[in-house]
Amino acid sequence: MLSKRLQAVAKFIDKKDNLIDVGCDHGYLGIYLKTNNLVNTILLTDVNKNALSNAISNIKNFNLNIPTILTNGLEDVATNQYDTISISGMGTSTIKKILNPTKLSTISKIIIQSNNNLFELRAFLKTLGYRLVDEITLQEKNIWYVVCLFKKGVDSSKFLKYGIPKKDKILYYKYLINNYQKVLKNIPIKDMEIRKQYLNEIDLLNKLLEEC
Ligand SMILES: C[S@@+](CC[C@H](N)C(=O)[O-])C[C@H]1O[C@@H](n2cnc3c(N)ncnc32)[C@H](O)[C@@H]1O
User: Fold this and answer.
1) What is the pTM of this model?
2) Residue to mutate, 4, 6, 9, 22, ligand 1, most ligand atoms under 8 Å from C-beta
3) Domain extents for the chain?
4) Is the minimum distance from the CB of 51 to ligand 1 under 6 angstroms?
5) Tens of pLDDT along 63-122?
6) CATH number of the domain at 4-161, out of 1.20.1630.10, 1.25.40.10, 3.40.190.10, 3.40.50.150?
């Protein structure tokens, strides 16, 4: 059974997509997509030999034929044969290194679930010429995940900081507000400027909550 997090990544993939899943690890996403006929072509990559071996043996167990490449990011991948990339379960700094602009000319869609620094991630994709189109926000085993869908185009989104306000963001925004309030409690009254910054973030999140 695919995790809720990877199911959310899969939701943004279309039957016509030619997908590279970078950092596939166990290969579960690719196996799920191929088994259910949810993708046109798919390539699985990983930088770690053991991870890719696991993926290869899982692919065999499912009697599937899915190509794999052992490589760092997109380095040895002929990306011009693909139009979609998924990257999940990594941090934003690793993802930024993987998304080498010289490798993206045919890539019209990028699906990313980063484990941290989502503002930096969304802003980076904007500089690469991708716009934030949609997001799925979910909680699994007490951890919040945001899966972002980017498509080629100019981003004029005002939602780069906290993402797109949708129903599934309500509890997430409340969680962020709660975290900021906890930090705020420990900031001495004399540190007006720092307190103001936190209060501004809480204010912004409350406004976004109204838009959900
Ligand atoms: C936590 S796992 C996530 C696996 C899967 N994508 C998921 O979301 O469940 C991260 C995987 O990314 C791989 N990885 C990390 N840096 C990478 C890079 N620069 N290029 C390719 N794979 C990388 C790791 O080896 C590991 O298998």
Assistant:
1) 0.97
2) 22
3) 4-161, 170-211
4) yes
5) 999 999 999 999 999 999 999 999 999 999 999 999 999 999 999 999 999 999 999 999
6) 3.40.50.150
Ligand 1 centre to CA of 170 (Å) is 29
Kindly report the average pLDDT of the chain as a whole number.
97
Q: Is 89 touching ligand 1 by the criterion CB < 6 Å?
A: yes
CA distances from residue 166 to 13, 74, 85, 107 in whole angstroms, order as listed: 20, 32, 24, 26
Alpha carbon separation from 15 to 42, 60, 168, 173 (Å, rounded)? 11, 22, 25, 32
Q: Does any ligand 1 atom lie closer than 6 A to the CB of residue 66?
A: no
**DSSP output for 128-173:** TTEEEEEEEEEEETTEEEEEEEEEES----S-TTT----GGGHHHH
Q: Is the C-beta atom of 30 inside 6 A of ligand 1? A: no
